[in-house]
Structure formats: C-alpha cells, structure tokens
Amino acid sequence: MRSITRFRRSLCRLSLGLLGGAVLGALPGAQALNVRVLVSSGQQVTVRVPVTPVAPSPLAPVSALSSPAQPQAMNTWLVGAAGPGRGAHLTLGGQDAGNSSLYLPPSPGSVVEISGRLYRGGVLLRAENGGVQAINVVDVEDYLRGVVPAEMPAGWPQSALAAQAVIARTYVAARINPGAPYDTCASESCQVYPGVSAEKPGTDAAIAATSTQVIAYGGRPASTYFSSDSGGFTASSAEVWGKELPYLPAKADPFSAGSPRASWRLEVPLARVQGVATQFGARVGALKAVSVTRVSESGRPQEIALSGASGTAKLSGAQAGGFVRALGASSSRATLSGLDPLIVEGSGAGHGVGLSQYGALGLARQGYDHLHILGFYYPGTALSRLAGVGGVAGPALASHQALPDLQHWAPLARAARQDIP
Fold it and tell me: Where in this chain does the record put each Sporulation stage II protein D amidase enhancer LytB N-terminal domain (predicted)?
C-alpha cells in the first residue's frame, strides 16, 4: 500500500510538471532551435525521467558536446490513451491525465528515457489514433550527436564526418514545421536516431566544429540527399524521383571507387523475377525476356522491357530503378542479362543522389576539407548558418557563402582509387 501511495504522489508531481508545460501543436518559442523527433508510438509507451534533474555546468553552453549522459535514478511511467477519437486523453499509470498532450520541456543537460532508449532534451506525449506518440524535443546540435555516428562510421576522417554533420543538420532543418505534430522520425525513413547510446567523441567533434552550418539554395535549406556509394557516378534527382533540382545532377564520381560495394553480382531465379514483375504491374504471363532498353546519363536503367507469353510491358523512370532494387540489388546502377537466372551486375549502394559517403571518404583521404566535399556533391549551393526559429517557413538562415567548386579534380581522383575498408 505504501508503494502505491508513493507512486500516486510521484505521479501527481510529474503530472503537475508536465501539465505546467502542456502544449498542443506548436512548441513554445525559444532561443535554441529545437527539433521534434517521433521516437516511439503504440498503445502504451514507457517514459522514464530523472528523479533529480541534471544541473548543467556553469562553464558549458546549453548544448555543449560533452561526455555522454551518466546513469541516474529514474521514475518510470506507463503512458496510455483512453477515450474516443479527438476526445482521447492520455493516462499515466492507468489514471486520466486530463489532457490529450503532455509536455516535459528540455532544459540544459536534461535527459529522458523513452521505450528503453535514452535521449537528450525533453518529451512531448500525444494521444493519437487510440495510442500514444512519444516525441523527443531536443536541441538540433544534441540531436545530431545521435544521428551522425548512426549514419557514418565515427572513425572516419574529420572532414568526412563534418560533411555528414552539415548535411544531417540541413536535412532536419528543412523539415522543421511548427504547424505539424512533429518534424522528423527516428528510423531509416528519415535519419537514424538512436539517441545517447550512439554518441561518439569523433562525431561530437565534427558537430561542434560545424555548429549551425547548413547548405542553402535560394535562401532555404537544400535537399541534402545522400547514399552509401554512388557506384562511380551520382544520379540526378530527376532520374530517381522525377524532380529536377539543379544542385543534384548526375556527375562522374571517381572518389567513390574502392568501397565494399564497388562492384557486385546477383543471380536472381526466374520465379523471383516473375513475382517482382507482377508487383510492378507487368502482367505479361510467363516471362521470356527482360532487358534494359534505355539508360540515364549516370548509367542507371530508365526503361526496362519485359516480354512474356501474353504480351509485353515497359517500366520507365523511377519504376525501372525500383524494379532493379526490388530484385535485391543494392543500387540501380546495374545491367541485366540472361533470364533463369537473371544476372544483375552493378556498382554502388543506395539511390546515388547527392553525397556519396564513400566518395566523401575518398575526398577526405585526399586532404579536402568538408566545404570542398560539399561543394563537389551539391554544386551551386551556399554555406549558411541557422539563425534561430523562423516560423511556418522553417528556421531562419544567415551568412550565405558560396561553397568552393572542386575543379581540376580528375588527376587527383586517381589516387582515391584504392581499397577502402
């Protein structure tokens, strides 16, 4: 009985703290630029908060890139939802919290554990579709501490890590929308964000060295797409997604040579090819031939012809590349031959648009700094800085400076053609 009483008293204290900062929709205005990351959702979500808030060091800035958060005594709460539709309320430990959203705002040095993962910052809880959304509200620089090492090996050269930090910061800055329930997610659908457990000294240093830096085009954060390995030639945004962006062209990328996926070969059984063809709407009966009939400037299929016992079909544009990847290829920069099995031979990994991570590694090993790496993969863009909260149009940017154009790189690229571990 005593434990139940203590639970209820603690529940009351937490509820008052949360309700004191309860918000619906947009977050309160603040000097720091916070990002709202959907990190967990379900019928119930477990949230743990420190018994005693962390006191920041007087010598450290609000989002100092210090050592990882240390283990602390935590209070645990099971958050659920009760009630129909938009009238649903959150529950804490089975008790009605009296609100459809609860907000524990971030503070200097604060951490929160959500569904077993520790995150910096605070948490916004929302009742949604009969369940709960748990949204980590965190300073953008602290958010990057969990993102960058999850996207690129922390032991890589600092200029490659710095380039990754800038494009990761730009990626999320372009998605900040105060009118939406949250800005981004924590999975591969957005940027992988495991929280504090992913933080590494090497990537922390790269984030600190590039603090607030983003890539801009036309005064707005650019679309900084990236993939593991371009396969020696980047793809344009137009050929992959049907949307032309002048700073995402198809271009030769010799610096990506030597990655683990520099070249690969698949043998796909006819039955699998038949199934993928049907999946893409090519119902031509028993397949007799599959061939690439048109390629893009980057060497990726732009049209694939399929002929079968009951007719022919063609897959064009993004569908052609999607067909190749659905066969199990790591990249659409590939050729097709044979039929049973269908031989798929290619190079690279990922969609190939924008920065190639192994290309960034190759450039870094040649001594190029992160600005030259970014200038090579996003030509015509400018280096800018986040200047705070902007409004419905996204964060404010300042200090636009053209990125260097990496010219006369072809001779130097030869030295980048080496085996890369």
Answer: 129-217
Q: DSSP string of 316-353? A: ETHHHHHHHHHTT-SBS-EEEEESTTEEEEE--BB--B
Cα radius of gyration (the chain): 25
- Contact in structure between 378 and 223 (CB atoms under 8 Å): no
Residues 239 and 318 in one domain: no
Instruction: Find the domain containing 249 and state its range.
Output: 148-254+353-416
184-185 vs 34-42, strand pairing mode: parallel
CA distances from 12 to 18, 53, 73, 111 (A): 10, 17, 18, 20
Spatial CA neighbour of 34 closest among 103, 114, 99, 121: 121
Query: Cα–Cα distance between 158 and 147 in angstroms, integer?
Result: 16
For the CA atoms of 203, 383, 212, 18, the dihedral, rounded to the nearest 10 degrees, stands at: -110
Average pLDDT over residues 325-343: 97
DSSP 6: H
What's the whole-model pTM score?
0.85
pLDDT digits (tens, 9 = 90+) for 262-277: 999 999 999 999 999 9
- The answer as to whether 3 is a domain residue is no
- Greatest alpha-carbon pair distance for the chain in Å reads 77
Same domain, 117 and 22: yes
Residue 11 belongs to some domain of the structure? no
C-alpha dihedral sign at 328, 329, 331, 335: negative
| One domain for residues 163 and 244 | yes
Torsion angles phi and psi, residue 170, rounded to 5: -65, -40
